[in-house]
Amino acid sequence: MAVKRWNGTSWEIYAGSDLAPVKVTDGRVGKTTFIGATTPTGMVDGDIWIDQDTATNAVVPTALLTKGDIFAATGNAAYTRLAAGNNGEQLYADSSTSTGLRWQGDFNTGKNKILNGATDIWQRGTSFSITGPGTVIYSADRWTCYSGNAGTISRDTSLVPVGFESSLKFTSTINNSGIDFYQLIETKNVIPLRGKTVTLSAYVAGTDGKTLPGMTAYYSNTTDDMIYLTSGVVIQTVAVSSALSSTSFQRISMTFTVPSTARTIRIGLISSTLNNTEFINWTGIQLEVGSVATPFTTNTANPQAELAACQRYYQRYGNSVPFEAFGVAHGIDANNARMYLPLKVHMRANPGFASSAASTFQKSFGTTAGLTTVALGSSSNHSVSIDFSRTSEFSANGGFIISSVGAATAYIELSAEL
Description:
The protein is mostly beta strands. It folds into three domains: 61-104, no CATH class; 127-309, Jelly Rolls (Sandwich); 312-415, Immunoglobulin-like, CATH 2.60.40. The protein is 3% helix and 40% strand. The chain has a six-stranded antiparallel sheet, with no helix packed on it. A six-stranded antiparallel sheet has the order 10-11-14-19-16-17. The longest helix has 9 residues, at 303-311. The relative contact order is 0.12.
């Protein structure tokens, strides 16, 4: 579209610093304002023509078909319609396209506030049995499980969405069971989200026809609070929009505002009631700033970084190969030795300690297999000491390698979980 002025001989584009602007609606005596794509006739000097030209280089608003469409140049004095992108996509420069622009999903590192959202990391093992209702255990890293009744939790590598390697699966082994997987987000990561609109999304599949699984979000005003089930304050809940499929995943999401006083957030994935052999799978869990769910990314840039981020909360040593060495212990006296263990990464807090039975550990090349006691000596967020004992097995100031007894069953675990 162009505004043109009749100069007595021809139509000239009515724009530029050398031409004073004219209000075409000022009712000038003896002057006419023409509107249309057809060249006017009977003009006099000073008439105005608003040319609704539909030629190639004219900007025609009717070419924009939906909200979000934009005009983009394709060359010198040429343009085309660039259709609106999908929810959450961003506009990038791309010289390989005709417009030099393209829409693309947001894959920025760090946007996802959930750790192990792809359910790839399983330091504790990949299969767990639940014997009754009310059981609370950890499964995949950073995911706590509260069971409605008996069942099994496992890493499923066969039923996964495109682009994923595993999903978090619960299978009921009794009628009237169920599961609540949840992750607590610590205060350090909640504070930057206060007052912001965020979107929680996840991929879910399961026994055909199930319609009540969904997600929940709770918060607490307490620093690093162990929010247990519904002990926090509910922020938002959502159920699946359509019945589950046992062969494919659907993505569900919910948007909410993080309260300005929140210090801990609890994200929950709920199954509803499951009967014997019925199951549910979750993966691709993401919490991000914004009002739409964008393409999934992990919390960190690569698998090693994601593992290290999870090890800030939990670290496991051993339980992998026979005669695995844990470290060198210093003999305190004939009966006791202390092993100092630098941690893989600094942990969220001074960790708690657990291990396999003392009989699964030995002093390598010792006179007898199996030690008598194993216990935590001291703990900090970057190192721990572990005390071992057996009568007449050590010597003062001696150095001894602590390893597992023949079978690969010995382990040490350190936890600073929420």
